[in-house]
Design a protein that fits this description.
Length: 376
C-alpha cells in the first residue's frame, strides 16, 4: 500500500483577486511516487463533478481507457487504425497505442483515431457554452506535407468541428452554421509540421452560448506554448481572418463523438509504412484540473504532466500522481486549476522518486488561493 502524502494548504482570507508572492517552498520532504494517492486541501478550488476525468488512457498495460476515468471503452466507428497496444513505446518508456501502418494506397489507412461517445455522460461537445479539455501525447513518423486534420469531433448529422493544418480552413465547423467560411485561420510553429518525436498537445474549447451568438473559444497549446487562440467570448473577432467561434446551433446537430486522438491526411499522403503513436490521453468536460509543471509560476509553467483527480470539493482535491516524463529527483511544481482555467499563481515544489516515499505532512502557510510556503 502506497503512503498518502497530505499537503495542507492554509490560505489567508484575502479577496479572490489578490495575489501574493510567497517564497518558493522546499521540496526536500515532498517526494512522491507514480500512482501515489495525494490529497490537496485549501479553499476556492471550485467545483468539479464528477471528480474523475471523462477519459484517462495511460496505456500502461492495454489499449483500453483506465477505470480512473468515467468512460472506459473506445467508440468503435471512430477508433480507427489505433487499436494495438505496445509495451515500452511511450515517451516515458511505458506502453502506448500504436497505429497501423499506412499501406501507401488506400487513403482510409492514413487515418488514425481513438474516440468516445460522451452522450453516455450526458453532454455533447457543442452543447451551448460547453467547455472541454484534451491533453494528449502524439508522435507521427512522417512530416506533414499537405492538409492534415489533427482534431475532429462529429455527431448525429454530417456536421463536425475540425482543426486542419496546411489549410485555409483552419479550425472551425464543417457542414453547419457558416461552415468553412467561419473557420479561424492559424499558423502553428513550422518545426511542429516536420517533427517526428513525441509532442504534447492541449486543446481548450468552449461552445458559443446560443444559436445566434458567435462567442465561443478555441485554444491549442503545443509542449506548453500557445500555438493558436481565438477568444470571441466577449464578442470580439480573431485574427488573421476576423472570425468568431461558432460550433453550437443551426445545422450542427449533437456532436457527441469526441476524438481524443485524431490524425488524418488528405490530398497529399505520407510514405507507405507511416504510423501514429499515442499516449496519456485525457479528456474532460471542464477546464478544472491538476497539473505538475516545470515552471514555478503558472504564468511561466512550461511543460506539464496531467494529474488524475479522484475527489474534488472547494476545499480538498484528491489525485493519483502521474509521473509521466518527469525525471526522478527533479523539482517540479504542483498546480490546482479551477473551472475558469485559472491556475495557482505559484506552484508547490515536489519531486518524484522510485523509492517508497516516507509518510509526510507538509504544512503550507501564507498566500492566497494561488500559493504558499512550506514550514518544517
Amino acid at each position: 500500500m502506497r503512503n498518502v502524502l497530505i499537503l495542507l494548504i492554509i490560505l489567508l482570507t484575502l479577496p479572490r483577486f489578490a495575489v501574493s508572492a510567497p517564497s518558493t517552498p522546499s521540496a526536500s520532504d515532498t517526494t512522491m511516487a507514480h500512482g501515489q494517492a495525494i490529497t490537496i486541501t485549501g479553499t476556492s478550488f471550485g467545483t468539479k463533478s464528477p471528480a474523475k476525468p471523462q477519459v484517462w488512457a495511460p496505456f500502461d498495460s492495454d489499449i483500453n481507457p483506465s477505470s480512473l476515468g468515467m468512460i472506459t471503452s473506445w467508440y468503435a466507428p471512430e477508433s480507427v487504425n489505433m487499436q494495438t497496444w505496445v509495451s515500452n513505446c511511450g515517451p516515458d518508456g511505458s506502453g502506448c497505442a500504436q497505429g497501423s501502418p499506412y499501406d501507401g494506397e488506400d487513403y482510409n489507412t492514413a487515418w488514425w483515431g481513438l474516440g468516445v461517445d460522451t452522450s453516455s455522460q450526458g453532454w455533447d461537445y457543442n452543447d451551448f457554452s460547453q467547455k472541454s479539455y484534451v491533453f494528449k501525447k502524439i508522435r507521427h513518423t512522417f512530416a506533414f506535407v499537405g492538409n492534415t486534420k489533427v482534431f475532429r469531433n462529429i455527431g448525429d448529422t454530417a456536421a463536425n468541428d475540425v482543426l486542419q493544418t496546411y489549410s485555409n480552413d483552419g479550425w472551425g465547423p464543417e457542414y453547419c452554421g457558416d461552415g468553412y467560411t467561419n473557420s479561424v485561420y492559424f499558423n502553428p510553429p513550422s518545426s511542429w509540421y516536420a517533427s517526428t518525436v513525441w509532442n504534447t498537445s492541449e486543446y481548450f474549447v468552449q461552445a458559443n452560448s446560443n444559436t445566434s451568438t458567435y462567442n465561443g473559444y478555441y485554444r491549442w497549446d503545443i509542449n506548453g506554448s500557445n500555438a493558436m487562440v481565438c477568444d470571441s467570448r466577449s464578442g470580439g473577432t480573431c485574427q488573421p481572418n476576423d472570425k468568431q467561434v461558432y460550433i453550437a446551433g443551426s445545422g450542427c446537430g449533437n456532436m457527441n463523438i469526441y476524438n481524443v486522438l485524431y490524425l488524418s491526411t488528405h490530398n497529399t499522403y505520407p510514405a507507405a509504412g507511416s504510423r501514429v503513436y499515442g499516449d496519456d490521453l485525457y479528456l474532460d468536460n471542464t477546464w478544472a484540473r491538476v497539473m505538475i509543471c516545470s515552471g514555478s509560476t503558472w504564468a511561466a509553467r512550461g511543460t506539464c504532466e496531467i494529474q488524475i483527480p479522484t475527489a474534488w470539493s472547494s476545499t480538498e482535491v484528491s489525485i493519483v500522481a502521474n509521473q509521466g516524463e518527469i525525471p526522478d529527483d527533479t523539482t517540479r511544481y504542483l498546480y490546482v486549476v479551477d473551472s475558469a482555467g485559472d491556475g495557482s499563481v505559484n506552484g508547490q515544489a515536489i519531486t518524484f522518486s522510485d523509492a517508497e516515499p516516507p509518510a509526510v505532512t507538509a504544512v503550507l502557510t501564507g498566500g492566497t488561493l494561488r500559493g504558499g510556503t512550506i514550514t518544517h
